[in-house]
Design a protein that fits this description.
Helices cover 15% and strands 0% of the residues. By secondary structure, it is largely without helices or strands. Among the domains are: 48 residues, no CATH class; 61 residues, no CATH class. The N terminus and C terminus are likely disordered.
Length: 183
């Protein structure tokens, strides 16, 4: 243990709530790399410019926000879950979202690409598709509690319209629902 001053733990040129030092230390390491903490500024936990297993870096982040990759989160901006320009083990997106609204696939929601629950071309807080869905109340040209959109369903009855709609379980169920909803 090398320090410029005597210490019961460590007392070095830079103040630190846990340790003040300028040389490697078993607990905290500032200017020089350390297996536990890499920091150059004082910190309640750690404020550093390099990746860290815990870390509070130059930018605020609900989990961690650093200028370099991080084992937990790789991002440059704050986010409710994750909002960053680089892939993330939890979420890959470039825009904020209640669940996920992004141009890349997501383990929970993939829009505008195929989705394990719903396939739709538009972003959605849960799911907002151009046609009613048996599980979710989607955006329909007319208000409806579930899939009771009379005029819209009447249009769906037309085969040419069905021909324009991609094959989807919801569409098939709606075709059956039409007989119960439309006179």
């Amino acid at each position: 243990m090398q320090c410029t001053y005597p210490h019961p733990v460590v007392q070095c040129p830079y103040p630190h709530p846990v340790v003040q030092c300028t040389y490697p230390h078993p607990v905290v390491q500032c200017p020089y790399p350390h297996p536990v903490v890499q920091c150059t500024y004082p910190h309640p936990v750690v404020q550093c410019t390099y990746p860290h297993p815990v870390v509070q870096c130059p930018y605020p982040h609900p989990v961690v926000q650093c200028p370099y990759p991080h084992p937990v989160v790789q991002c440059l901006y704050p986010h409710p879950v994750v909002q960053c320009p680089y892939p993330h083990p939890v979420v890959q997106c470039t825009y904020p979202h209640p669940v996920v609204q992004c141009p890349y696939p997501h383990p929970v929601v993939q829009c505008p690409y195929p989705h394990p629950v719903v396939q739709c071309p538009y972003p959605h807080p849960v799911v907002q598709c151009p046609y009613p869905h048996p599980v979710v109340q989607l955006q329909c040209p007319y208000p409806h509690p579930v899939a009771q959109c009379r005029q819209y369903l009447e249009k769906l009855v037309d085969d040419s319209v069905f021909g324009q709609i991609p094959a989807h379980p919801a569409a098939l169920q709606l075709r059956g629902a039409v007989f119960f909803t439309v006179d």
